[in-house]
C-alpha cells in the first residue's frame, strides 16, 4: 500500500487535516436566506383600481409613481363609469382597461395615452358586446380580452377581432412570445386553468384543483405564470400559486396564509409580486401588498405611499418597471 496515501487517509479520518477532505463540502451547505426587513426600492409605475363593492359601480383608477411617490386618480374626469382592470403597454406609455361606456352603457375595452391629453378611446363600440379583462400582447400590437364570455383578440392595426375560444373562457394573458394565452375556464368550484394556442385555437387544460376555484392567471416568465386557487373545499380562501406552461405540478407560494384571500398576483421581477389580500391587518376588504415569492416576506403598499390602501377594495394591480 502507498504509505503517503495511508497517512493522508488517517489524518483525514481523525479530522486533523488543515483542508477539507471533500472538495464539495461548501457546495453542500444550506445557507439561511437573509431576513428582508423592508419593501424593495422600485422605479416605474403601478396602476390599480378601488371600489366600495363591484355592484356599486364606483370604481376609480389610480397610478402610483415609485420614483416621485406621486399617487393620482386618473379616471376622475373620464366619460366612463366603473373603470377597472388596467394593463400597461410594453413601453409603459399606454394602458388598456375595461369600463362602462357612456354611449354604449355596457362593458367596453378602452385605450388610454398616459400623457393624459385626451379621453380614453373606446375600442369595442360595436354590436353591444360585453368586453372585459384586456391585456396587451408582448409586442403591443394586439389585445386579448373576454368578449361575451369567450376569449378574443383585437388587432390594434386593423381593428379586427378574432374569437379564440368557445363560451365560458375568460381572463386571458399572453405567454412571453405572444403565441399562446393562459386563461380561466368556468367559474367557482368547477373552474380550471387552460392554455390556448393562438394560431391553431387548440385548448388544453393545465390545472384543475378539485372543488375549488382556479382563476386569474398572469404570466411570470418564459416557463411559468401565477394564478389564484382556493385553499380547500372547507376553507375557500384564495392562495397564489406558480403554475408552469409545461403542466408541471404547481407550487403554493410561501407568503400565503389561511387568514384571508391572497390573490391576483402581478410580477414585479423574479423575486417580488404585488397581490391583493384580505389578510389580518388590512384596511378594507382587499388591500395591495408586495410579497417575496422566495422568502415569503410581505409588506403593505402603504410602505411606499400611505394613501394607496383605503377602507375600499384595492384590486387589479399592474406594474411597469423601468429598466
Secondary structure elements and their pairing?
Layout: H1 3-13, H2 25-28, E1 44-51, E2 60-65, E3 70-73, E4 80-88, E5 94-101, E6 107-113, E7 121-122, E8 131-136, E9 142-147, E10 150-155, E11 161-163, E12 169-174, E13 180-185, E14 192-197, E15 203-207, E16 214-219, E17 224-230, E18 238-244, E19 251-252, E20 262-267, E21 272-277, E22 287-292, E23 298-300, E24 313-321
Antiparallel strand pairs: 1-2, 1-24, 2-3, 4-5, 5-6, 6-7, 8-9, 9-10, 10-11, 12-13, 13-14, 14-15, 16-17, 17-18, 18-19, 20-21, 21-22, 22-23
Tell me what the structure shows.
With 323 residues, the protein is mainly β. The chain has one domain: 6 Propeller (Neuraminidase). Helix content is 5%, strand content 43%. A 4-stranded antiparallel sheet has the order 3-2-1-24, with no helix packed on it. Strands 4-5-6-7 form a 4-stranded antiparallel sheet, with no helix packed on it. Strand 9 (142-147) and strand 10 (150-155) form a beta hairpin. The chain starts with a helix and ends with a strand. The model is unreliable at 1-28 (pLDDT under 50). It holds the Pfam family PD40. Keywords: Signal. This is DUF5050 domain-containing protein. Residues 1-22 form the signal peptide. Belongs to the TolB family.
